[in-house]
Each structure stands twice: as structure tokens, then as C-alpha cells.
Design a protein that fits this description.
There is one protein chain. With about 250 residues, this protein is an alpha+beta fold. Helix 3 packs across helix 4. It is about 20% helix and about 35% strand. The protein is extended and about 70 Å long. The longest helix is centred in the middle third of the chain and has 17 residues. It contains five helices and eleven strands, in the order ββαββββββααββαβα.
Length: about 250
């Protein structure tokens, strides 16, 4: 499915041709705009992998420790040395999800350098204000988060990532609650609270946030999370995946 993503420049919409030989395979992109290089093909072993050398699958794993990548002409690469190592027992992967609620988001821009310098304490104060408000009505079963792009919006999940802050921020306010109506209400309250939040050093009082869209809040619908993700040992893998041939 990845096809020419393993070429340079990478593309998810072009085709790749694979030549299968007894002890190797050769990759060739079909677009004249792209080339396979040893680097582009080898780099694809990192794609969605926790380990670039061992790629587990049903019945075993592909071992790439001795794989060899060779440039055989201007746009073809030969890969050899890969080995399939079967496991003693056969496993199939199970994946499943459960619904956890409904999501509403609001996107807002921040330019004020004073607010940007205090953004962590501001978002924490807004969270506490929202929680305190809805506890009054007995609503505690919800999730509220502020994803801050321009300050580790992508890498923020890693505690050792360097803390670099831009001179503009995009804040995505996210509320997840048991019903869409509750998510809408919680997100709207959080957005309004942050819009008018008074922080030390604030000069303008017209509003702290710039909204690129109107209406500012967007209903995202149902939210799911993984609740089944493991390997199941089976005695006969063919029993789980019967094949029926029909002649017509």
C-alpha cells in the first residue's frame, strides 16, 4: 500500500513495481519523476515500526539484521538477506476499540508574547475553572485538553523534548464527554473562559484569542480508543480465516 513512499521524492499516490526472485526482490518506481535509492528503501524499514530490524507478523517475524540494499541501476534497488523466522506457536493479532464519548474542538490563535510566556499556568487555571463550574452541576465525567502547536504540539508527549516556543501559538481546545451536547457545552465554556481570562500583564481586554473559523466550535462526533490490542495463540490459523470458492 505504501508503494512509492519508498522512493525519492516519496509519494503515496504512485505505483511501485516489485520483482520477486528466489533470494531477493527488486523495487522500481513506475513514475519517471521518482527514483528508488538504497537510502529511500532502507528508510522504509522504519515506517510504523518499533524495531527496524525485526518485523513481527502472524507465524513469525522478518529478520532484517543481515539485509543488503544495492543500487543496481539509476532507479532500481535490490534487497537481499532478509529472513523469515517462524515462531514455535502461531499467533494472530486482535485489535478492537470502544466508544469513550463525543468530541468538540475549538481552534484559536495566540500572538500576545505575555500570554505565550504564561500559557502553561493559563491553561491550568482555565482547566480548574471549567472543572469547578461543572462540578456544581454534578458533571465530572469529561476530558478537557489544550493542544498547543508552536510549543511542542507534536513532541509534547515526550518529556525530554526541547521546549521551543514560537512567537505565535495555535491552541486546540478539546472536550470529550458522554454526550455531544455536554462536549459542546464544556468546550464552549473553556473557550469563553480562555478568551476572557485575565492574566498578569495583560493589556488588551477585548479578547485573548483569534478564531480562524466561525462558528468557532466544531462537533467531531464519536470518539474511540483501543481496548483490545494483543496477540492470540491459535492451534490452527486456517480455522479463523476460512476460504470459500464459488464457481459461476
Amino acid at each position: 500500500e505504501c508503494a512509492a513512499i519508498a522512493a525519492l521524492p516519496g509519494s503515496g499516490s504512485d505505483c511501485m513495481f516489485g520483482y520477486l526472485h528466489e533470494d531477493n526482490f527488486v523495487l522500481e518506481p513506475l513514475s519517471p519523476l521518482r527514483k528508488c535509492t538504497t537510502l529511500s528503501v532502507a528508510a522504509h524499514t522504519l515506517y510504523e515500526k518499533t524495531n527496524p530490524y525485526v518485523l513481527p507478523g502472524p507465524g513469525g517475524a522478518i529478520n532484517l539484521h543481515e539485509s543488503k540494499f544495492e543500487q543496481i541501476d539509476d532507479n532500481k534497488v535490490r534487497v537481499s538477506g532478509s529472513r523469515f523466522v517462524p515462531t514455535e506457536e502461531y499467533f494472530v493479532k486482535l485489535e478492537g476499540v470502544k466508544r469513550v464519548g463525543y468530541r468538540t474542538i475549538s481552534c484559536a490563535g495566540v500572538k500576545d508574547p505575555i500570554m505565550i510566556s504564561k500559557i502553561d499556568s493559563i491553561t491550568q487555571s482555565v482547566k480548574e475553572r471549567v472543572q469547578n463550574n461543572f462540578e456544581t452541576y454534578g458533571i465530572t465525567d469529561f476530558f478537557l485538553d489544550f493542544k498547543i502547536y508552536g510549543r511542542n504540539g507534536v513532541m509534547g508527549m515526550f518529556p525530554d523534548a526541547p521546549q521551543r516556543t514560537g512567537d505565535e501559538l495555535l491552541i486546540i481546545i478539546e472536550a470529550v464527554a458522554p454526550t455531544q451536547e455536554q462536549a459542546d457545552t464544556i468546550c464552549g465554556f473553556a473557550r469563553s473562559t480562555m478568551l476572557h481570562f485575565g492574566y498578569e500583564g495583560r493589556i488588551a481586554t477585548a479578547g485573548n484569542l483569534a478564531f480562524p473559523f466561525s462558528p468557532s466550535d466544531c462537533k467531531m462526533g464519536e470518539v474511540y480508543e483501543f481496548n483490545v490490542y494483543h496477540l492470540m495463540k491459535v492451534e490452527d490459523p486456517k480455522k479463523l480465516f476460512p476460504i470459500e470458492y464459488v464457481q459461476f
